[in-house]
Amino acid sequence: MSREPALVHRYEPPAGAEGRTLLLLHGTGGNEDDLIPLGGMLLPGAGLLSPRGNVLEHGMPRFFRRLAEGVFDEADLRARTAELAGFIQWAAGAYGFDAARVVAAGFSNGANIAASLLLLAPGTLAGGILFRAMVPLVPRETPRLRDVRVFIGAGRTDPLVPAAEAERLAGMLRGAGAAVTLHWEGGGHQLTPGDVTAARAWLTSEGQ
To answer: pLDDT tens digits, residue range 161-178?
Structure first.
């Protein structure tokens, strides 16, 4: 390894011929172990790269700072997004996976920084699974996401992410050229079996 990684993380190498890597991004209060089981359900055999957010909010790890519920510190978000993009490149070199075949799978805060990666660092991700995500920021320039597929898992009664916000994110990504699937569950902010089933089907369709 050429240098110390920017983020505490866990890496599980691929099992078998699956050449893709899932970047697993936890929600507020999670850690690098939380989404490992989810990754195995979403794409069995894929490599799993799971970092821990290095911002603490009342002792709970997050990927970037916020000023209030749903109000993000944009300067910090931009800096942390660049840091995460650099970490992915470092990990690809350290562990020998293809950086061009990384698909993010994030929940809540993790989904928000995955959306930020798509908007601010196009080319970093081949695709994204965004569970309970909102618009993280409005980029100064519209990214080119023509070859990127995105799955957004939204809850119709989510008290933290209104339905209109999920629609807004989908529209923003589509406006940048991404192929977006917006999947609705009847519940709130929690991840459901229906989310996982739909995301797995999406991920395995058309060789995403």
So the answer is: 999 999 999 999 999 999
